[in-house]
Amino acid sequence: MTTLMTCWKSSKRTNKLKAGGSGDQHQSLTPSKNTAIIPAVLDAEVKEIIIAHRIVWLQAVVALVVAGIAYASNSAPGIALAVFGGGFVSVANGALLAWRFSRSVSCSRHETHHSLDVHHQLRLLYFYAAERFLVVVALLGLCMVALKMAPLAVLIGFVIGQSVQMAARIFLKNL
Questions:
Q1: How far apart are CA 86 and CA 27, in angstroms?
Q2: How would you class 64 by CB atoms within 10 Å of its CB: exposed for 0-12, middle for 13-18, buried for 19 or more?
Q3: Are 143 and 85 in contact (CB under 8 A)?
Q4: Do 86 and 147 touch, CB atoms closer than 8 A?
Q5: Residue 106 C-beta-side C-alpha neighbours within 13 Å
Q6: Listed residue (78, 56, 57, 80) closest to 67, CA to CA
Q7: Residues 135, 90: Cα–Cα separation, whole Å
Q8: Which of 36, 74, 87, 114 has the fewest beta carbons closer than 10 A?
Q9: pTM for the full predicted model
Q10: pLDDT means per 10 residues in the chain (175 residues)?
Q11: Which helix (H) or strand (E) holds 151?
């Protein structure tokens, strides 16, 4: 009998809250979908955005330095330009990654009309990965085919740029 009475009181209170008759705002035990539960998560997102931008700048500097080393060792501006072209492709890849990450973080904070569910976020992840892949293939093809740069030098510059991206992610994360 007591459980029936408790259940009746609970349903009566729920109906009152739904109707807005009590004057109180609707309170829920679970936060809305776009609410940051832990303030540290917001700090971590901001830190990741800063790290991503630093990595892009570091890739650009390393691409210039490696192109300078290639020019100094070979005295061939074509090889140095090809190495810089490969490094530039890596910088473009990192910049696209940083831009999409910062955009997804800012959109998730300000999203009010659409709540992003897990399936939508997974589709965006696949789309962004395919987008970066296609941009890299197109830029490498542009450097090698259209601009007729030395393919090995372009690939060396690209691999060095990607190595800087991976190494910088590891080292800057710990700072």
A1: 55
A2: middle
A3: yes
A4: no
A5: 7
A6: 80
A7: 10
A8: 114
A9: 0.71
A10: 47 50 55 56 80 95 95 90 97 94 71 62 89 97 95 96 94 82
A11: helix 151-173
